[in-house]
Design goal:
Radius of gyration of chain A: 20 Å
Distance between the termini of chain A: 54 Å
Shape of chain A: elongated
Oligomer: homodimer
Helix content of chain A: 25-40%
CATH topology of the largest domain in chain A: Cobalt-precorrin-4 Transmethylase, domain 1
CATH class of the largest domain in chain A: Alpha Beta
Largest sheet of chain A: 5 strands, parallel
Number of helices of chain A: 8
Largest interface: A-B, 59 and 59 residues
């Protein structure tokens, strides 16, 4: 059998192994070559699936640092040549989406290796589903500008795009800038624009808010958690 | 306990119930009010999970037709008032993404009802993961224009956007237009642009192709299946 590159989702919240279909953990259990964003968390995850082999006999090649990509590619080619299946894993969620895994998938296509994406959690997709905004047209921007004046400009720009194209606008932010994003958004977005924030989806402190900007302003003493967040900006939702 | 709106993914390929995590089928088994794209397929799916109640005693409100949305909203409000949890389901894949379910999610937010998105297959997300293209910035357009000259224009426009913004461009097509999309794309896209097509992901006839346009032209007698497809256009992939 020719080798396969499995794209393996991992949980996006603590203690959320239940969000993975059983066929995914079954595949993970029988692999011994992994290309991963960070070896430490990947080993921890593989261990939790009850693997067939001892962890010490497995290979975990990292692609988190830019410098390591060439090494990971070599690990990939060696495994393929030996007829071994490979697992690609992100730090959390789906590999190839908002992470550096795409380079390995592209290499697999060039090498004629079958690429098999497996089903699992994606914070972007879950946040989009849960927002109640247009899921028929949407765009993901990654991170917006980190500083207030540029962020304000970015938010006004994507708000205009949301209205003009009826296209939901998604972006993500790191824990320590979530509060600032909420503040700036409530300052600069129009009162009837829809604004959504999702944190810790599938986790114990899951919070999903979606309402017009004017209703956000009425939330008393609202404080987002210091956790990563997915934000969405959309045109006013029809009643 | 206040009622919850569960966003329930369903399989995207035949006989692919294994792609749903067990916690999803467990939740489905214990619901008896569903808002669905098409009642017939929804009943079939709910039956396959081994529900606690007879199917005839459940409510399936359709939102597939525009005219039925008001009825579905009434079913939603009645269930909430009675303290009952509700399941929202798409015809296949994730509700609220490329389907009309978002209106019900928006209603839930307005009514202060907790929205709980569950993990499952999305052909868009799986196609993006498997493409090897940039997953850090991407846009989903829904369907492009159905006629050749306008489709050619659309493809040129999204190709320019892919290069200018380094933003992967996704769109979908129905079975009977897939062949035409491939023909027009190979005519009008630049030789080094990356072009990907995914069909029947997670299914028995899964096919995922991703390569530069010039390599597509070398495929001899290539015929896509008469199945829905996800297409992606991206800038040239670095080696």
């Amino acid at each position: 059998m020719p080798a396969i590159l499995y794209l393996i989702p991992t949980p996006i919240a603590e203690n959320a192994l239940h969000t993975l279909p059983a066929y995914v953990t079954e595949i993970v259990r029988n692999l011994d070559v992994f290309i991963v964003e960070r070896a430490k968390t990947a080993r921890h995850f593989v261990k939790s699936t009850g693997p067939a082999k001892p962890i010490q006999e497995m290979i975990f090649a990292e692609i988190g640092e830019h410098s390591a990509l060439a090494d990971a590619k070599q690990v990939f080619m060696d495994a393929i040549t030996a007829g071994k299946n490979i697992g690609l894993m992100s730090e959390a969620g789906c590999p190839g989406v908002a992470d550096p895994g795409a380079a390995i998938v592209a290499l697999a296509h060039r090498a004629g290796v079958r690429v098999e994406p497996l089903v699992g959690p994606s914070s972007l997709l879950l946040a989009l589903m849960a927002s109640g905004m247009n899921g028929q047209r949407f765009v993901f921007h990654g991170y917006l500008s980190p500083k207030r004046p540029e962020l304000a400009k970015d938010l006004r720009r994507i708000e205009a795009q949301a209205k003009q194209l009826d296209q939901t606008q998604l972006f993500i932010e790191t824990p320590y800038r979530v509060q600032m994003v909420v503040e700036v958004a409530l300052e600069v977005l129009q009162p009837d624009s829809q604004f959504s924030m999702a944190q810790d989806i599938t986790g114990a402190s899951e919070q999903i808010l979606s309402m017009p900007v004017k209703d956000w302003k009425n939330l008393k003493n609202f404080q987002p958690e210091k956790l990563p967040a997915v934000f969405l900006v959309g045109k006013p939702v029809n009643k």
